[in-house]
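Researcher: Next entry: Noroxomaritidine/norcraugsodine reductase (Asparagus officinalis).
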Amino acid sequence: MNRHAIVEELVAFGATVHTCSSNEEKLNKCLRRWESLKLPITGSVCDVSSRQEREKLMEKVSSLFNGKLDILINNAGRALFKSSVDVTTEDYSLIMATNLEACFHLSQLAHPLLKASGAGNIVFNASIAGTIALANLSLYSATKGALVQLTKSLACEWAKDNIRTNCIGPGVIDTPLVERYEEFKSREASRTPLGRNGEPEEVAALAAFLCMPAASYISGQIIFVDGARTVNG
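Model: Predicted structure:
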């Protein structure tokens, strides 16, 4: 399992990347490995559910890239497998702050940097759960559905600034988000025409493509990476 597939895919295509994680120990371990490979990757400790930490992160990004940014990948997120009647106020606040508020606010903060680049790209990582119903994922699904609409709105609103906005809708991907939920993973694989869950690299490949000149006329779209799960009912 490659937990950093999007970072490494972008670097493979020549990007210089600044990433973030709420876990300082894990981030530093990754940064040491990337440094040993001489990859142009830096990182910050950031809990994206915190407004102050988001602002600090984007100040760092602006400083590193001289006030310009070509690509913003909104990839951080939390899952919550709970019946709707069992969702607490604390659950609601955390999932909304991490999965939706953070994406909206980071996009706001990044807007002047993306505009300054002359050809900015935003990619939201949503989910098939933003389009189809999955059991015990109502709150998570609500945030992902909101990202789908946010993608469409920003694509139209910021087109004048030459900023493209797109959204990826992954199916069940073998990442830490779902590694504890084997029954769920097996059930979803059985409902997927390709007969398996996805790999992080399969999502990363699309994320990188959407930021390339080859995708210069693609904006406002949600593209599913789901083995045909969403069209299978």
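Model: Note for the record: The domain at 69-225 is CATH 3.40.50.720 (Rossmann fold).
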